[in-house]
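Please fill in the sequence for the structure shown.

STRUCTURE ENCODING:
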């Protein structure tokens, strides 16, 4: 009896130690990501190394926890998106919209809308960098501050990243966790899905931007049109989207289908770029976002540790007790909590950790998990728009403004970002509730 007691106490102590190590490591890494947007990959892998050294997670479990389909989606999509932006087609589209606008306010709203549409298929930071010069030219020629223009572009690009599977890491993580395919983001189980929720939210939130820009009634200044360097990247992007739709329809249960398609088109684009454009040996590979790539890999390991030691199950149990089986309350809690936390912390670790929490919470309430999962992704994807530190695209826009000599502050961003976020989330939130409750 004494031996059993000693073994039981030792086992309980080990479990508590593992929970502390896993929880503390995840929180420490999340805090670092919240205050610094440099060295994110190394920071996450430092946390992973701690888990391995302490024995909280074994190396085999760590390797198996990495979702290689998501890594393939991110890698291939990023390469194709970089080529699309290199082609200057997005800049040419922005120039065309500006030239056809009645006044500066409408031109800026259309440019923001375009940045959002591009971000549904391309990386948000790259979208901001390619569209921002158009807004900067308009601001200079109108002799006004470019702050509201750049903020509008950044928040629009962040919003639409959740519209498709390839738009943003949270969408990729959702697809991985729930088994959704590319086509499921449009229609799923006979119901309209995230794409339509986000597009409706984007359309309504453009009204917020128009109110912010309405005082700019001046005629649109003339902008020299960007020359298109090549149409090949555009055809690659169109081909990739078409292939994703076909594979999702024909092979919906092929675990690595989406990642394989994205990597195939990414590899084809890289070969074309390196052999035809000749901008330098492996120049496209060198520009690849390796930091985010390794961040994603490491986050899978950190979250697997949370699952293995029971922290995720414990959090789901706590939320189940708090919401007392009330579906509407649970939906509100996961959605608006996601908005709040994503305003200050990186949404990749947050979404990776919260998706299984949402799934377990739904199971404990005997409801479909998709309502809660969609709420988490919408809240986390759009919540970053509230502050300049909530998303990488915001930080880039902030940096462009600082470099241009603009005296931009935290309050300038919140002034547009907060109402934009509240309106966008509210619209998408009601859409999802109406169809998925």
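FILLED IN BY: designer on duty
SEQUENCE:
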């Amino acid at each position: 009896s004494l031996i059993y007691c000693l073994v039981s106490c030792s086992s309980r102590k080990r479990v508590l130690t593992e929970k502390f190590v896993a929880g503390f490591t995840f929180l420490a890494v999340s805090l670092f990501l919240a205050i610094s947007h440099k060295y994110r990959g190394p920071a996450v892998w430092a946390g992973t190394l701690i888990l391995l050294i302490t024995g909280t997670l074994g190396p085999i479990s760590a390797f198996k926890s990495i979702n290689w389909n998501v890594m393939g989606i991110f890698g291939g999509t990023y390469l194709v998106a970089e080529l699309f932006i290199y082609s200057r087609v997005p800049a040419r589209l922005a120039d065309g919209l500006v030239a056809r606008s009645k006044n500066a306010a409408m031109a800026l709203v259309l440019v923001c809308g375009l940045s959002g549409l591009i971000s549904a298929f391309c990386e948000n930071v790259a979208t901001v960098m390619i569209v921002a010069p158009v807004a900067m030219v308009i601001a200079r020629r109108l002799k006004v501050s470019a702050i509201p223009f750049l903020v509008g572009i950044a928040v629009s690009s962040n919003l639409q990243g959740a519209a498709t599977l390839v738009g943003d890491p949270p969408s990729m993580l959702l697809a991985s966790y729930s088994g959704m395919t590319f086509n499921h983001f449009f229609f799923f189980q006979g119901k309209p899905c995230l794409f339509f929720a986000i597009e409706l939210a984007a359309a309504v939130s453009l009204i917020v931007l128009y109110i912010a820009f309405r005082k700019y009634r001046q005629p649109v200044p003339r902008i020299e049109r960007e020359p298109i360097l090549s149409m090949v990247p555009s055809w690659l992007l169109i081909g990739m989207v078409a292939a994703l739709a076909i594979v999702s329809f024909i092979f919906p249960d092929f675990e690595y289908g989406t990642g394989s398609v994205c990597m195939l088109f990414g590899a084809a684009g890289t070969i074309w770029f390196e052999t035809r454009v000749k901008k330098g040996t492996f120049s496209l590979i060198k520009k690849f976002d390796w930091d985010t790539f390794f961040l994603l890999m490491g986050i899978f390991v950190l979250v697997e540790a949370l699952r293995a030691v029971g922290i995720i199950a414990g959090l789901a149990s706590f939320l189940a007790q708090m919401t007392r089986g009330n579906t509407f309350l649970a939906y509100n809690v996961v959605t608006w909590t996601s908005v709040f936390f994503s305003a200050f912390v990186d949404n990749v670790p947050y979404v990776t950790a919260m998706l299984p929490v949402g799934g377990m919470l739904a199971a404990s309430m005997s409801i479909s998990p998709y309502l809660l999962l969609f709420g988490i992704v919408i809240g986390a994807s759009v919540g970053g728009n509230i502050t300049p530190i909530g998303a990488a695209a915001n930080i880039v826009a902030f940096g462009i403004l600082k470099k241009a000599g603009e005296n931009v502050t935290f309050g300038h961003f919140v002034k547009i970002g907060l109402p934009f976020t509240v309106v966008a989330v509210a619209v998408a939130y009601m859409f999802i509730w109406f169809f998925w409750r």
